[in-house]
What we know:
The protein is of the alpha/beta class. It has helices spanning 17-25, 47-60, 80-100, 117-133, 157-166, 170-173, 181-186, 194-207, 241-250, 271-282; strands at 4-8, 29-32, 65-68, 104-107, 140-144, 175-180, 213-217, 220-221, 232-233, 258-261. It is built from ten helices and ten strands.
Amino acid sequence: MNVKVGCHVSIAGSIDKAVNRAEEIGCDTFQVFTGNPRGWNVKPLEEDATDKFREKVAASGINPVVAHMPYLPNPASPKNELYEKSCDVLLRELRRCETLGIPYLVTHPGSHLGSGRDRGIERIAGAIDSALDSDSGKTCILVENTSGSKNSIGGSIGDIADILDRLSGAGKKRTGVCFDTCHAWAAGYDLSTKEGLDETLEAFDSLIGLEKLKIIHLNDSKGELDGHLDRHEHIGLGRIGEDGMRNIVTDKRLSHLPFICETPVNDIRDDAGNLAKVRELSA
């Protein structure tokens, strides 16, 4: 079975260099931040680098390219100033994706900071609707499930379903899901067994619909099942384990999707090593 697998790559130096890095590692797909992920402000995209990025992606045959939102925005925040800034960044990133020809933008739902689940979901749906209504491009927003830590939204499939149900207009058409295996495990979905995977996918299909699932973040986990610890591990070397990972990448409901690894790089294994492991498990 030929799976489509890649990883998150650096844009250091110039965003078009990410494509070279993805090719060097052997990616079929890859993920980037479009700018500095740790600040509110980013440098405008340079026309030359943008053109090179698009040309290199087209020449490489790598697809899809996925962008990830920076870390600071919290679209579930009850604090108006933070919420407005988060909405602004969501729209800015959508527009940067359109400029770069990137079809998917992954966002974490955020934390309601104690204001309650329903209020948090209402805020997130409002942020997505607002961004997509203001944007005439084609890039889709993908809501990513979370590890289910205190006050966070998105730990359960039900949370994601409720966010999607609240959307209207462009939000209904241009929003999907990115499913992170480490986060799901941390939130209590046992992906280490075939039975657990089946239960998880059946719940996803009944509450959301598998057609809404566009990207898998394929990460093993350092933490316990339902421990809410968001700590990624090398493929097959964590608590989900080799059998669990093999079940995921060979499941016919998932195997056609792009798998993106956000795994550690250390003396145990690098990105290329994790891609090789995924291909070995899928064979």
